[in-house]
Write a structure and sequence with these properties.
Helix content is 39%, strand content 15%. The chain is α+β, with helices and mostly antiparallel strands. A 4-stranded mixed beta sheet has the order 1-2-4-3.
């Protein structure tokens, strides 16, 4: 049965989980890093176990600040697969909403150190956002757009806006939907 798994490799699409990609195509790890150096963090075994299991390639493209079509087709080419047509919509920037300002921040979490130590911020963030109400905000600071985490909190009824600052620094504002 494992021989069949090795013969029939999975497709590489925007919905492919990063963990599935690396399990089926371990040789593509270096290609990911070449496309966007932020993916070096996947060499950290803890982040690899956590982030790669919750992030799709579409979310990884957002994290890596690359167009999804470019990422998918570079990976497909390196895997010996043909190119596919992918709509590049992941880098469209939205205007900063009026509510996303530091004045209303109740809780601020700079996740740089935790991420460097292989600690995924999802658990802490999903617990702490419950403590914000009304116009209060939660501010998450990360070295990349935390795409899987954004999706998680949006599904729990929060509005989210991420602002890119200098030197790979991102501020993600989270508030309860009104």
């Amino acid at each position: 049965m494992s021989d069949i798994k090795n013969i029939i490799k999975k497709e590489i699409t925007p919905q492919t989980m990063v963990s599935d990609l690396l399990e089926n195509y371990p040789e593509l790890e270096d290609k990911l890093i070449e496309i966007s150096p932020i993916f070096k963090k996947l060499k950290n075994p803890i982040l690899r176990k956590t982030v790669s299991k919750v992030a799709t390639l579409k979310q990884a493209a957002t994290i890596g600040n690359v167009q999804i079509g470019f990422l998918i087709n570079q990976l497909r080419e390196a895997a010996g697969l043909g190119n596919i047509n992918v709509k590049d919509d992941n880098l469209q920037r939205q205007a900063k909403p009026n509510w996303a300002n530091k004045i209303n921040v109740k809780i601020e979490y700079d996740a740089f150190i935790d991420l460097e130590n292989g600690i995924h911020p999802a658990g802490k963030v999903t617990k702490q956002v419950h403590d914000i109400n009304g116009n209060e905000l939660y501010l998450l600071i990360t070295p990349f757009v935390p795409a899987p985490l954004i999706q998680m909190v949006e599904e729990k009824g929060y509005e989210v806006y991420t602002d890119e600052l200098e030197n790979h620094r991102f501020e993600t504002y989270i508030k309860r939907k009104e």
